[in-house]
Request: fold
Amino acid sequence: MRTESITTTRTALLAMLGPEPGPTARELWYVLHGQAMRATQILEMASVLDDGARLLVAPEALNRHYIGPAVSRDAPVGATWMTRAERDADMRDYVTYLDAVHARMRDRFRGATAPVTVLGFSQGGATAVRWVATGAVRPEHLVVWASSLPPEVDYRALVARHPGLRVTYVCGTRDRFITPKVRDAQHAMLRNAGVPFDAVSFAGGHRLDDNTLKAVASPVR
Reply:
């Protein structure tokens, strides 16, 4: 038995909240969902960011699956950015996909410029870091929320590639996945690589938090 890979075209789903791309959109945010979530779900969780001038774009991961032990016509569906199977290929594919999303958004802005923020929640946090490290996006702000940082990324190169990039690492105090020990390890990874970052916490678990989202979205003064 042997295997080989081919490249194929996929149809992807984008969920958007806020103004149409163009002069009325003063900010562009890419919001990347976590494991077993959908694009519309993460936008509902981040809807507090919709201030009438901030365009939120949530690309849905290309790999969907049923959630739960039994598959039925009513079983919920989630999406995942990658699994351990064909891991490297999935990572390359989603960077290419996210680059295509960004190219479409830039075309729709028609020359208007808007600062870009990339926010990744849970599994989407690692996805966001990989995209910023290797893709075409040039954000002003990278928000990693309740996520383990991908260990293979060269963080010194990421900083050199994006001078002035604002990095924020957010985690709830009762997150069942990003425990204080895990959180401290992520902070140490960034510090050891010389990545300037803001560490933000809130009282809560593995979720987005409205007040914290609004604070993180505030411009640096």
In short: The chain has six helices and nine strands. The mean pLDDT is 95. Strands lie at 14-17, 27-32, 54-59, 63-66, 77-80, 116-121, 141-145, 166-172, 198-202.
